[in-house]
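Render Ribonuclease in 3D.
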Amino acid sequence: MAENATLPLTEERKRRIIRDFSPFVRDGMPQYATFFATKGKITVTLYKDKALFQGEGALEAARKYGEPEQRKVSLKPRTCPRPKLEQIGSDETGTGNYFGPVVVCAAHLTLEDIAWAKQIGATDSKLLTDEQIAIVARKLIKRIDYSLLCLSAKRYNEVHAKGFNMNAVKAKMHNSALLRLKKKHPHATLCQDQFAEPEVYFSYLRGEKQIAKPIDFSTKGELAFPSVACASIIARHCLVKKMEELGKEYGCEFPFGAGDEVERFAKQLVKEKGEDILAKVAKVSFKNTARILSKTVQDFLEV
């Protein structure tokens, strides 16, 4: 089962963590993070004063460097403050995964929906297991209005080849999802989990015929805005289902993340199906691709 563990960061702890995880640095570093890596099933993210360990065995991994601040995950974890207005919030997922799509969801909540969402445990999806996300997502989908966009890895590669980086892709997807709901709910406040400075975000949207604004941004949007929390849950639920569908299509189980386990899987996939498979199922702009396609001495010996 996935776990989260937060460890207060000292210079000594920071040095040791970077030493142990530096060979496994990955793309898609979160906003305001200083270090981002995945080793096996453990993802570690360093911020200014804390280290966040995520994945199966995260608590045990964190304890190698000190005593973490433990937080139990339940269906009613820490929730968002009650806002004064109906709102539309958007969030994305899949951007740090080598395999699979990028998913963006926008969710609309009335004041009544906000109170109800709190009761069912709708909070930051990173604080929930996939099983809990599925339970909450099904309830949300039945009740609230939402807009869901899913960009396949194949399509992402085509868009990236035209000069759009990941943040530009995310900005355009967020804008589209927000606009869809704003047209239906014109009086709702717009909220977003911030992944870029506002001026940078809007710079990605230059040339768009319509831009959803103004937007309230927060770097902890899932905890600041209930609508963003709900959007994050629906988006994650969609991502899990899409990854399952991708696995059925190719007869395998695609791993999440972009660490060494993913690269080992990808090398075997290329060996069985050829290099062209990556353009169909993976985000080939990630640095992982060069390592996956590089030949080692052992590779030549096995030919």
